[in-house]
């Protein structure tokens, strides 16, 4: 086994030891095709008020501008599918937000992985990213063989579905590279047909400015457009509709991460409980939860809109 092969095996073993469910590796290069798609998406205004999507375009399409002399993009998947579900009559919350904020959980794992690489392999320069920097995570996941980007815009793993967080570690270490994954959506259009707001404008293209997740999380205005009234299907924070109807998610299995154990309020609160919640209680209950991203006022706005 060559040193490069040994290093690759070591990294994948350490990723598994840290609790990541899947690990794939791709050569660091410029994503020309993705650049064209992203440019068109932005030009059509599908990012809505998420103006940060316009920033650092060159870094989004080329990891070598994020890490000097980058050689490899390591992509890691972490399952968040919950064992328990909300009551049917409760304001709905996207499954990724049931437990602790994934940024906190995954960032610690990435830091540990990089530290172990440096301790064992030697001087390696790298940076870890988890949904907080200009990285096209899904594209790198597909290139590293971890799945394909489905018609709903989500990464789909053939054996495990799509309820995964995606993390990226870019390094200047040359490694063995995995083959890109094929597309297995076929003629299925369940996600396109099920989207409550018509945000899936064509296979693989999500109009972010029409997505329920955008309105309930990203939109900072106090009012949601009247044209969306009655179309949120009781989603208060995020939306899982396009994943819930995906046939590949029949393979989803509950995660084993204690950090993603649902916050009791997520499983127990009904509409009246959310409405009675004070801002102080909200901050205390959800201080480590993704729900804090919408803030108390955002949650109250969303409740009134779906009520």
Q: Can you put this structure into words, describing what you see?
A:
The chain is α+β, with helices and mostly antiparallel strands and 307 residues long. It folds into 2 domains: 3-86 and 95-171, no CATH class; 190-247 and 262-306, no CATH class. Helix content is 34%, strand content 13%. The protein has 12 helices and 10 strands. The strands form 4 sheets. The protein has a 4-stranded antiparallel beta sheet, with helices on both faces. Helix 1 packs antiparallel against helix 4. The longest helix is centred in the middle third of the chain and has 20 residues, at 102-121. The radius of gyration is 20 Å and the shape is globular.
Describe the structure in brief.
This protein has 307 residues and is α+β, with helices and mostly antiparallel strands. It is built from twelve helices and ten strands. The protein has two domains: 3-86 and 95-171, no CATH class; 190-247 and 262-306, no CATH class.
What labels would you give this structure?
307 residues, alpha+beta, 2 domains, 4-stranded antiparallel beta sheet, two-stranded parallel ribbon, 12 helices, 34% helix, 13% strand
Inertia-based shape: globular
Rg from Cα: 20 Å
Query: How many beta strands in the DSSP annotation?
Result: 10
Helix content: 25-40%
Number of domains: 2
Strand count, sense and closure of the main sheet?
Answer: 4 strands, antiparallel
Q: Report the span from N to C terminus.
A: 62 Å
- Unreliable parts: none
Helix segment tally: 12
**How do the SSEs run, as a string of H and E?**
HEHHEEHEHEEEHEEHEHHHHH
In terms of quaternary structure, what is this? single chain
Mean pLDDT rating: 94
- Percent strand: 5-15%
